[in-house]
Amino acid sequence: MAEATYTIRLDSLEVTMGLGIHAHERAAPQRVLISVAMTCAYPAAPHDRIDAVVDYDQVRERIRAIAANGHVMLQEVLCERIAALCLSDRRVVEVTVRSTKPDVYPDAQIGCEIRRSRC
Fold first, then answer.
1. What total of structural domains would you count in the chain?
2. pTM score, two decimals?
3. Containing domain of residue 36, as a range?
4. Where residue 87 sits, what CATH number does that domain have?
5. 58-80 pLDDT, tens per residue?
6. CA distances from 72 to 26, 29, 57, 66, 77 (A)
7. For the chain, how long is the longest CA-to-CA vector?
8. Model confidence pLDDT, tens digit, residues 29-57
9. I want to staple 44 with a disulfide (CB 3.0 to 4.6 A). Which of 1, 14, 58, 110 is the partner?
10. One-character DSSP codes across 11-64
């Protein structure tokens, strides 16, 4: 049977974490929204069992652990760390990660998005 690909999405996961370079960002944690889209390749259409697919519960918990693991200066670094954790599962062939700080400006959200793939 041919390879089966799926895009697994985790959208707008809200974490509270230290993120940013400015003094007020370093003084207190802030809300950060994280979205992940993982293109997953399986040898065939998966059976109806969690061990047959990428477990998004584990991805969610590992992202929360990154957020809890000390201050990160740049959104780019945060996105790279999340992309690396997603790609650590060999079934993930591409990942898009977006982080957004919704409370920095009164009239806009600020964010970063990266796409990484297995080469």
1. 1
2. 0.93
3. 4-117
4. 3.30.1130.10
5. 999 999 999 999 999 999 999 99
6. 9, 11, 23, 9, 7
7. 56
8. 999 999 999 999 998 888 888 888 899 99
9. 1
10. EEEEEEE-B-SSHHHHHS-EEEEEEEEEEEEESSSPPSSGGGS--HHHHHHHHH
